[in-house]
């Protein structure tokens, strides 16, 4: 998945470097010669997993953690290809990674010190979506000048693959014997996901805009190899991002 992220970033950088110099003159006059066929967005924001199901419930019951501890910064990028006056095909990649330290809720060591662990959650969605704009993105003035509208809301739906890792390591308690032991539990792999989104583009100049978007990702996966006997690991979550969008004319 890291290779895919580098590919997306490389496409964005190449397009930015290759934008025609003529666009500078168009921007100065507040219009472009045509509606852009490609837009590139680099974004950052916050992702909050739902953290439902019995694996998460067991974690919250046994350790000094709760759902809010797994909110994390998110970063990523989109490449959007215009397929109709109001619709785009969007290729997206994002990553959010959070690590939290915890202690056993109910037990302490024989030395009186807490029994400590570290839990880490990584999610890296990579996929495609269809984005539909709820109003025209701009308008042609005559036959040679395209002017963007100031604010353009949109909705979207998409699918893809999610690389994930849920990792717990440190000290734990065997509740049947009260023995303290050191171990590591991990569920990792790739899972299919579906996504719904909504957002708004605020245009600054013809070649540049600010995009805000909220995304809800639906995903779950087997808890293998360490969490057999539990329900599926819930990987769903909500994210909110703000990005800088470049139009490639």
**Unreliable segments of 5+ consecutive residues:** 13-29
Helix share, percent: 10-25%
Task: State the strand order across the main sheet.
Answer: 1-2-3-4-7-8-9-11
The domain tally reads 1
What can you see in these coordinates?
- The structure is a single chain.
- The chain is mainly β and 249 residues long.
- The chain has a single domain (2-248), classed as Porin (Beta Barrel), CATH 2.40.160.
- 14% of the residues lie in helices and 61% in strands.
- It is built from 3 helices and 11 strands.
- The strands form 2 sheets. Strands 1-2-3-4-7-8-9-11 form an 8-stranded antiparallel beta barrel. A two-stranded antiparallel ribbon has the order 5-6.
- A hairpin with a 2-residue loop joins strand 8 (179-205) and strand 9 (208-221).
- The longest helix has 17 residues, at 2-18.
- The two termini are 29 Å apart.
- Residues 13-29 have low confidence and may be disordered.
What's the topology here?
Elements: H1 2-18, H2 22-29, E1 38-49, H3 54-62, E2 72-82, E3 87-108, E4 114-133, E5 138-141, E6 145-148, E7 151-174, E8 179-205, E9 208-221, E10 233-234, E11 237-248
Describe the structure in brief.
The protein is mainly beta.
What attributes characterize this protein structure?
two-stranded antiparallel ribbon; Porin; 249 residues; mainly beta
């Amino acid at each position: 998945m890291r290779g895919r992220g580098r590919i997306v970033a490389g496409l964005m950088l190449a397009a930015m470097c290759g934008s025609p110099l003529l666009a500078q003159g168009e921007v100065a006059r507040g219009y472009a010669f045509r509606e852009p066929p490609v837009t590139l967005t680099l974004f950052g924001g916050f992702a909050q997993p739902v953290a439902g199901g019995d694996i998460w419930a067991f974690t919250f019951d046994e350790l000094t953690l709760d759902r809010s501890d797994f909110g994390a910064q998110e970063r990523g990028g989109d490449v959007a290809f215009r397929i109709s006056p109001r619709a785009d095909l969007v290729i997206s990649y994002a990553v959010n990674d959070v690590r939290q330290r915890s202690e056993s809720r109910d037990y302490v060591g024989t030395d009186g010190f807490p029994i400590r662990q570290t839990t880490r959650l990584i999610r890296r969605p990579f996929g495609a979506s269809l984005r539909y704009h709820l109003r025209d993105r701009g308008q042609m003035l005559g036959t040679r000048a395209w002017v963007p509208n100031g604010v353009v809301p949109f909705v979207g739906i998409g699918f893809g693959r999610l690389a994930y890792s849920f990792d717990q390591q440190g000290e734990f308690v065997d509740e049947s014997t009260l023995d303290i032991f050191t171990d590591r539990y991990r569920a990792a792999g790739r899972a299919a996901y579906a996504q719904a989104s909504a957002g708004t583009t605020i245009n600054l100049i013809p070649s540049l805009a600010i995009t805000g978007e909220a995304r809800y990702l639906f995903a779950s996966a087997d808890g293998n190899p360490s969490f057999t006997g539990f329900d599926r690991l819930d990987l769903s979550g909500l994210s909110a991002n703000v990005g800088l969008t470049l139009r490639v004319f």
